[in-house]
Amino acid sequence: MELTLAGIDNRADFERAEVELPSFDVADMQTKGKEDPRWIHLGPGNIFRAFPARVAHDMIADGEHWPITAVVPMNPEELDKQLGANDLMTLTVTLNPDGTRDLKVIAGISEGLAWARSADYNRLVEVVKHPKVSMISMTITEKGYGIHDSQGQLSEQVLGDIDSDPRQFHANTMANIAGLLVHRYDAGGEPINVMSFDNFSHNGDKLKDSVLQVMRGWVNGGKLDAAVLEWVADKEKVAFPVTVIDKITPRPNVAVGEELKVLGFTDMEVDYLGRMPVAGFVNTEPTEYLIIEDVLVGDVPDFKNYGVNVTSREVADDFENMKVTTCLNPLHTALATAGVVLGFPTIDSEMRDPALRAFVEQLGRNEGLPVVVDPGIVNPEDFLNEVLDVRFPNRYLPDDPARIAMDTSQKVGIRFGETIKKYIAQDRDLTELKAIPLAIAIWMRYLLAVDDEGKPFDPSPDPLLEELQGRLAGVTLGQPVDASAVLRPILSNPAIFGVNLYDTPLAQRIEHLFTELVAGPGAVRNTVNKEMMA
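The chain above was modelled as a monomer; its predicted structure follows.
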């Protein structure tokens, strides 16, 4: 079997393998989608292919015309290998906690573009000008929204884009989004929704702020009419809703690819783009949430019929705070860096370690839940219980800690900093926090790129990796360290943590823990055991 337009014509083979096929003519949908585009998505990675693309697929199956134009913002080879080879379709492999699996071909994409290719960028400009296009969504990770350097100043890249023609291709992603909106305005300015589906606090606000800052630079430099800026700032014309998405989608697992080969697939092998594995399938979990703030403009789908909650800002904020700052993402980040340093291959294997299990229990249950507001969509304690008892321990969904450790510098301010700020605002005792300072100290230890046995490893990509490792350059495992001298420039930076940790008692606690963690081989294991199993 091959996952191609020609391959799915052999329906009997797919049915024997218990693969759910599209109920509509995929080729016809793709033709019509190119002629009449409706929805643009930037960053068609795993979570998009398993969830938003599935939403579009189900809408199309119901006769609703919402095909997606998928745009790869980085390496064009990602488009060719991960989507193009399968005629823009994806096989979702839902790995259930009981060991069963569900296979479904997702065909929600009508066109694939890589905006680094000039012809594709020009085509994207045509698409964004189409009056019936009413949504631009994106999954580009936290760093994709960045326009500042680590000191809070506009980056050199962004300054270069601001000094250029707004209507040309730009190096910075936010500048490119701003430029596409300029083209939209030029074409008549029909209402449009610009939505981040990435997991960080107030994502829509951050997206809007970054776009408007770039546009103000163009206006102030005389390169753009102020009317364009006013149009983008008008919430009746361009909406930037806050959203929250939740669905664990690890990198494609080689073992899953082998199982698909046994089923009869000939094109589901895992390939690589550098260190990043890519495949025609996405392995994922059954649990999923997508929350969108109810401020959408123009003609949009009836999302609520497809597993999407369109709700108030208050509910969206409360769900986001529950998931992103207390009950899931902080636990993931804590397990990620600890797992790499301790040599765990998967998140589920960490959950079978008593000390690490206690670590995330403390982080979520004892430190997070006390400052959580119930969003009403799901009870926070029930959500946390599912994370700790079902989702993270799912041994059938192997997730690499190194994947989650990517871009940690862009996450800690939200995943740990927000809880710290709530404790300060509510006049709570910060010395009650035990897991958060340990998680931050372990991240500092992780940056040494030496595991707990003293063996070197390659840290996951992070935009601040070089800078942060430079701060720690004088630290050697097993040698005395002046923790205050090496950590103060990092821990005092509110651009990283959301607060200056030296304005709290946490900085000294982190210094003490870091000193223990670098004492020598085995120190990380000893410290985690001592702190969490006492």
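The chain has 25 helices and 15 strands.
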